[in-house]
Amino acid sequence: MTPFSPLNWFRSPAAQASCRTALSCEASLDEAVRQVADELGSASADLALVFVSSHFASDLPRLLPLLHKRLQSTHWLGAVGGGVIGTDRSGKATEVERNAALSVTLLNLPGAVLQPFAVATDSLPDLDGSSEEWHRWFELDPNTTRAMLLLVDPGSSGITDLISGRDYAYPAAACIGGIAAPHNAPHGSLLCGDQVVSGAVGLGIGGDWTLDPVVAQGCRPIGPVFAIEQSHRNVLLQLSEGSRRDSPVACLQRVLAELTEDEREMAKDSLFLGVERRDLLIGGNQPSEPGSAFLVRNLIGVDPRNGAVAVAERVRPGQNVQFQLREANASRQEASQLLCAARERAERPPLLGLLFACLGRGSGLFGTADGDVSIARSVMADLPISGAFCNGEIGPLGGSTHLHGYTACWGLLRQAPLSS
Asked: What is the per-residue pLDDT across 234-282, written as a single tens digit (0 to 9) for each?
């Protein structure tokens, strides 16, 4: 049975989905609001997504009231970004990395069930409790939640537990989002309804609509896959390759010896470790991996006494790991392949691409502006794109949702009617 949406009472049978986007780089907040409002027009929308650069942090409490005077939408949601991603009236998608910017997207989604939420993160439900506690806490019905958008304030505590609890309560709903940018103003970094808030905000999406997740980590594997023989929490103590066992440092030295001189130079600043994540959720939320995936994590320390290596992820014996090298060509190829696969899987093209990208991507990684949006436009030429550069990106990999770094997390908003 298709979930019921009371919004459908007020729609004609011929209601059409639509996406209107606007982007302003005006240095004045008032002028930026005027520009986006003029471009978007006065027609009402079901959902407004607002992403604003931290240049406007001190003026943030004025932003939503200014937009409400000019634009009409049932729901409002957004965040402050370290940079802003948007599409202007001409259809050009742009990543604005270091300048003031305001991106607003208005969506009409016939047949959608939209459930916004705003939660405080200082006290979370028990991860060992029932999933119903998390349902009540989010105030989202799991039966009408096919996907979720999640935005988190940078001052929030327990972000990893929040993501784990979300997976526990909504295992079949893909989740995309990010951590907003910090600032010095005395208020939060999130936008919900008509207020600036902290904690976490988001949107449950259901009915005839969903988000297809695409998570591009931007690394290529180097060297063989190693098995973890000994570890303690996040410290690798011994790895094996076939019958050969050695310290992690010794394994890494063998890998580096096989690289070119240029690659070894790159590895000084761009070396990571991929930690295997197996599908643990039946009907998990990342359809593109056939059973396992490597979650890319920072290497955070070496103990020269025993050759141990610390990694920014808990590990356990029996898992596989592989060293990874982050570079632009690998990032382009991976993102292009994943977006192409998402396009081929979908019966209908997406109405909007939501992009939450690491501050370490952009021109710093690709050497030119608009790196990620250019890749997406090479796959889906007319795709409207909006989003933000984040302090951490949220997206699924290997059957569960993770907090990432150096990653581009895409949510492709698509109409996908449920069979009755």
From this structure: 999 999 999 999 999 999 999 999 999 999 999 998 999 999 986 443 3
| Residue 349 and residue 283 in one domain | no
Q: What is the pTM of this model?
A: 0.91
Q: Could you tell me the residue range of the domain that residue 171 belongs to?
A: 6-217+331-415
E-assigned strands of 145-270?
147-152, 174-179, 190-192, 195-197, 200-207, 209-216, 219-221, 226-232, 235-241, 244-246
Tokens matching residue 34 = 């005027």
Per the structure, how many domains does the chain have? 2
Phi and psi (nearest 5°) for 372? -70, -40
Are 287 and 407 in a shared domain?
A: no
- Whether residue 126 lies inside any domain: the answer is yes
- Strands 352-358 and 385-390: what pairing? parallel
Tokens representing 297 are 């994590």
Per-residue pLDDT tens over the stretch 57-116: 999 999 999 999 999 999 999 999 999 999 999 999 999 999 999 999 999 999 999 999
Give residue 225's identity as a one-letter amino acid code.
V
CB 354 within 8 A of CB 387: yes
Domain-ending residue, one of 325, 352, 378: 325
Residues 345 and 317 in one domain: no
- The reply to whether 420 falls in a domain is no
